[in-house]
Amino acid sequence: IRSGLIFLQEAKVLPEKDLTESYVNQMKYEVRFLIAYYYSLMIELYGAIPFTPGVLVSVDAPESEMMTSQRPYAEVVDWIDKELLEVSEHLPAVYPNNTDWGRATSIMALAIRAKTLLFAASPLFNGNKDYANYVDKDGEHLFNSTEDPTKWDAAIAACEAAIEASQDPELGLELYSYKSNLILSDETKCQLSIRNSVTEKWNTELIWGLSSRSDAHLQSLCMTRVGAYPNNMWGGQEMLNPTMEATNLYYTKNGVPMDEDKTWNYADRFKVKMHTNEQPYELASYYETIQMNFDREPRFYANIGFDGCTWYQYNCPSDSEKDIWTAKNRAGQAQGKLGTNSYTTTGYWTKKLVSATYEVTQSSYTTERFPWPEMRLTDLYLLYAEALNEKDDANNRELAISYLDQIRARAGLKGIKESWDTYSKYPNRYKTQEGLREIIQRERAIELMFEGSRFWDLRRWKTANKVLNEKIHGWNFEGETPAEYYSQRTLYTLKFIAPRDYFWPIHQNDLVVNPKLVQNPGW
Q: How far apart are CA 408 and CA 403, in angstroms?
């Protein structure tokens, strides 16, 4: 933020360097966008923060000017709201030169504004009684502990403004759909529509991609080894592993939770079953795997690698001509434990973050880097659906469901109503605000899994103290037989202390240096 303020103060027009007045002004609006974005991250972390927008304190300033107290959370949100709305009117809609992609645009500003206002309307920040006595050194309250329903109105309006802007044909924004002349099954095309919405470089769904976080090494940490080169540890290091609890969130093929699907055998989910034919194609033929891997939704197969799964890559060595290979990771098998660190401790791989271009060689790998998806169109749709549902109205729920259904359709699922009416033990769930809230939160967890949203969502919903105080589990990677391998292990017991852990602590040294600061509650 300080670097940005220095830029705003010092940037000059230099015609001889092609720094025209219009270009310098554009860069200043980009910097203002970034400053507002960084403030939005700070309040997610800390809640109330020291806040003197636009003030560049001199390094020679007296101590009294440098030491500032925290300002109320709502004051910072209000400033971010107005700032992002203003800069959105001056930033370009798109950049014609792809070397500029990732720089601030008007839709990025509107989307981050919508997200900030929705966070401000959420239970952690809106009417949270836990912070009723949280005041600064002068006794000013840093949070409003009385719920304000109009905050949801502001979030709805901000989401609508961002969605309307996203429909500008010049942007070319739409939910990604895989299109290719390759002869592939419908199932594979559906999986690639799901995977490539994250990993295809600058795809049609990307509102904001962080080009500076384009890291091929991340993909190798999520990738398992390929059977043709079982000793190539660089081909797949298997270090970022989904937990069993994460995989349990995915629906059945009928688009409802496993324990809610009246046609799915939930009681026998931990039993081993032989897959004896070529269908469904998502499972290795004539291989024993757990029943929990059968008849799941396309996002499960697109995003999760597991023992007995099939894996599609454009150029991967395989036993077939379709670049589809199978993963078998019990002890002694091709994807089983190799050495001290090349294995999956949970039994699962994060297939979602591996580009379909990932190609393994004898001793290395190559892949296309992709910008990290800081904001996708699906994220914006989910935010809008959530905000609509919080204004308890039947018409709002209908509109919310319509946006959820667009995401589900791309994921190869039927709509909310059809799925719950036909398959759920609780067919009326989507008809109430509370029930639809549960569905929206689960859709968000599934659709954005591994993209960095889950922890922040659990906090703002004030459900972290429940979800993050549970045990996490995985399979026994030392097991050689199916019975040994499919022995559920407790890997770790999470600990989340409420209300303390809902906000980051302020470092003790900062409290000593600046006596105007107050520690966040519970620390």
A: 9
HEC-encoded secondary structure of 25-81: HHHHHHHHHHHHHHHHHHHHHHCCEECCCCCCCCCCCCHHHHCCCEECHHHHHHHHH
User: Rounded to whole angstroms, how far apart are CA atoms 89 and 287?
Assistant: 58
d(CA 278, CA 366): 30
Coil vs helix vs strand at 452: coil
Pairing between strand 287-290 and 272-275?
A: antiparallel
In the block, tokens 């004051």 appear at 75
- The reported pLDDT for the residue numbered 341 is 67
Say if residue 499 is preceded by a cis peptide, omega within 30 of 0: yes
* CA atoms of 46 and 51, how far apart (whole Å): 12
Is 266 a residue whose pLDDT tops 90?
yes
- Mean pLDDT is lowest, of 75-79, 273-277, 411-415, for 273-277
User: CA 423, 243, 367, 202 torsion: positive or negative?
Assistant: positive
The encoded tokens of residue 387 equal: 């905000």
Helix (H, G, I), strand (E, B) or coil at 488: coil
Tokens of 178: 């895989």
Q: Where are the alpha helices (DSSP H) in 290-415?
A: 298-303, 377-390, 394-410
pTM: 0.96
Rounded to the nearest angstrom, the gap between the alpha carbon of residue 453 and the centroid of all alpha carbons in its chain is 4
How sure is the predictor about 321, in pLDDT bands with cuts at 50, 70 and 90? very low
**Which pLDDT tens digit goes with each residue over 346-397?**
999 999 999 999 988 788 888 999 999 999 999 999 999 999 999 989 999 9
Contact 42/92 with Cβ under 8 angstroms?
Answer: no
Give Cα 301 to chain centroid, integer Å: 18
Percentage of residues of the chain with pLDDT beyond 90:
81
CA gap 307, 479 in Å, rounded? 12
How far apart CA 112 and CA 106 sit, in angstroms, is 10
Mean of pLDDT values over 98-119: 97
Distance CA 374, CA 112 (A): 10
How many angstroms separate the CA atoms of 408 and 369, rounded?
27
User: Quick count: other Cβ atoms within 10 Å of Cβ 89?
Assistant: 10
- Residue 320 pLDDT > 50: no
What integer pLDDT is reported at residue 318 of this predicted model? 52
- Count CB atoms within 10 A of the CB of residue 391: 16
